[in-house]
Amino acid sequence: MSTAVIACGALSGHILDIVERNDLEVTIESIEPLFHNQPTEIAPAVEDAIKRLQPTHSKIAIAYADCGTYGELDSVCEYYGIPRLEGETCYDVFATAERIREEFEAIPGTYVLTDYLVKSFRRSVIQELGLDRYPHLRDDYFHSYERLLWLTQRQTPELLRAAQEASELISLPLEIVHVGDQHLEKQLLALIEESA
User: Fold this and answer.
1) How many helical (H) and strand (E) elements, i.e. helices and strands, does the chain have?
2) Which of 108, 132, 133, 145 has its CA 20 to 30 Å from the CA of residue 126?
3) pLDDT tens readout for residues 42-53
4) pTM greater than the 0.85 cutoff
5) pLDDT category of residue 193 using cuts at 50, 70 and 90
6) Same-domain status, 53 and 82
7) pLDDT of residue 19
């Protein structure tokens, strides 16, 4: 019997890095990250994963914030007695809820990206919003935003180019704040311990 982490696909790469850094034996079960665009799919997908993993794993942790489920994910976690990451969004998971609150108080019109969202911007934002087909909708979607804030975990030249391209695609000035993945790591290790 071993430990399983049911993770949002947007966090899976970071979870794998943390698992390897800490020499942990953990099975990572990734959930489709595009479910963030249909958050009613998240809790049922997590519950299905729990049911699949329970027979073969003695410990399970949920690497998700609430992510727009409005408590549905918490209900699943409570029912199965399995803990999840703190926070409302993955931005809280990386930067802390307090830091995100400060950023939104400073500039309420802030559109936030993580490394995953920078990498997948064309697919997860442009295509999902239909801006590849209807670019004139850009102003409908983004007229209230004043900046694009990239909370970078590990900035690379490739990601920087992708972030700059995202900034150009939605016509918002880019700001970069390095947050790393230490807050995620601390929470994940605590979850694995708690689920024992």
Assistant:
1) 10, 6
2) 108
3) 999 999 999 999
4) yes
5) confident
6) yes
7) 95
Taking only the tens place, the pLDDT of each residue in 87-146 is 999 999 999 999 999 999 999 999 999 999 999 999 999 999 999 999 999 999 999 999
Q: How far is CA 33 from CA 67, 120, 126, 154, in A?
A: 11, 10, 15, 19
By C-alpha distance, which of 17, 18, 1 is closest to 190?
A: 18
Residue whose entry in the numeric block shows the structure tokens 């947050």: 179
Q: Quote the domain boundaries for residue 65.
A: 2-88+181-194
Residue among 6, 10, 18, 39 nearest 118 (CA): 10
Q: Please determine, for residue 186, whether its predicted confidence score (pLDDT) is greater than 80.
A: yes
CA distance 65 to 86: 6
Query: Do 127 and 166 fall into the same domain?
Result: yes
Other Cβ atoms less than 10 A from the Cβ of 180: the count is 14
Closest CA to 97 of 145, 65, 63: 65
Report, in angstroms and rounded to the nearest whole number, the Rg of the chain calculated over CA atoms: 17
**Strands ordered across the beta sheet of 2-8:** 26-31, 2-8, 57-63
Q: Are strands 174-178 and 147-152 parallel, antiparallel or unpaired?
A: parallel
